[in-house]
Amino acid sequence: MDFWHAVLNRLGLRIADGELLRQRMSEVALLAVDLELTGLDPQQDDIVSVGWIKGAGFSLDLSSSHHALVQTDSSLKQSPVIHGITDVELQSAVSLQQQLVQLAALADDHVWVMHCHRLDWGVLQKSYRQCQLTCPSPVIIDTLLLEQYLLGKSGYQNSPVSLTESRRRYGLATAPAHNALEDAAATLELLFAQLGRLGVKPDGQFKQLSHTGALISG
Q: What string of DSSP letters covers the chain?
C-alpha cells in the first residue's frame, strides 16, 4: 500500500478519492452547505432551512446559490428568535425529502465544505434515514477543524473558532449568521482565506490538506 492510500485509509476516505488528492485546488468542485435547525442536538432536532453554494478556483459561483425553507412537524423552539423563521413562513416550505434528493445529487462530484460538520452532517444522516433515502458519502472539508489546526500551529489553541470569530481573524466581513445560504457563502469565503494562510495556491494539490485533520469522509 503506497503512502497516499495509507493516508486515505486513515481518513476513512474511499481509495477512489486518491484521484481527488492529486487534483489541483483550482480544479476541485466545492459545495458549501449550511443548515438552520430547531436546536443543537443532531439526534433530536430537525432542519428548518437549507442553503448551499458552489465554488472553484478560489471564487464563489453566485449563480449556484440555493436556499429553501423546509417543512417540519417539530416544534420550532427558538428558531423564530434565532433564525427569524416562523410557522407561517413554513406553510409554503418545500419537503425535506425533496431537498435531500437534490443535495445527494451533488455529493459525488463536489467536495462539501461545512463549519462544524458534526452538527449539520449528523442531522443530515438522521434525516436521510428518516426519509428512507440512501445517505450520500461526500468528502467534507470542515473549516472549524481547519481553523483549529491553523490556531494550533500559531500557539493559540484555545481561541474561539465560531464562523464569526474565524472570519474576523482574516479580516473578512462579519457573517450575517442564522441564514443558511449566507452562512454557506461565508464558510466558503473562510475556506479560501484559510487556504491562503496555509500557503495553498490554486495550482497546489488537494492533498496539501490531508495532514490538517480537516478532511472528513461522510
A: --HHHHHHHHHT--GGGHHHHHSBGGG--EEEEEEEESSS-TTT--EEEEEEEEEETTEEEEEEEEEEEB---S--TTHHHHT---HHHHTTPBPHHHHHHHHHTTSSS-EEEESSHHHHHHHHHHHHHHTT-PPP--EEEEHHHHHHHHHHHHT-TTS--SHHHHHHHTTPPPP--S-HHHHHHHHHHHHHHHHHHHT--TTSBGGGGTTTT-EEE-
Classify strands 47-56 and 215-217 as parallel, antiparallel or unpaired: unpaired
Query: Which CATH number goes with the domain that contains 71?
Result: 3.30.420.10
> Which residues are CB-neighbours of 65 under 8 A, at least 6 positions away?
51, 53, 181, 185
Range of the domain at 28: 3-217
pLDDT tens per residue across span 119-140: 999 999 999 999 999 999 999 9
For the chain, the straight-line distance linking the first and the last C-alpha, in angstroms and rounded, comes to 23
Which distant-in-sequence residues (6+ apart) come within 8 Å of 56 by Cβ?
26, 27, 28, 29, 30
How far is it, in rounded angstroms, from Cα 29 to Cα 111? 6
Q: What are phi and psi of 181, to 5 degrees?
A: -70, -45
Q: How many domains does the chain have?
A: 1
Give per-residue pLDDT as tens, 182-218: 999 999 999 999 999 999 999 999 989 989 999 998 7
- Contact (Cβ atoms closer than 8 angstroms) between residue 191 and residue 30: yes
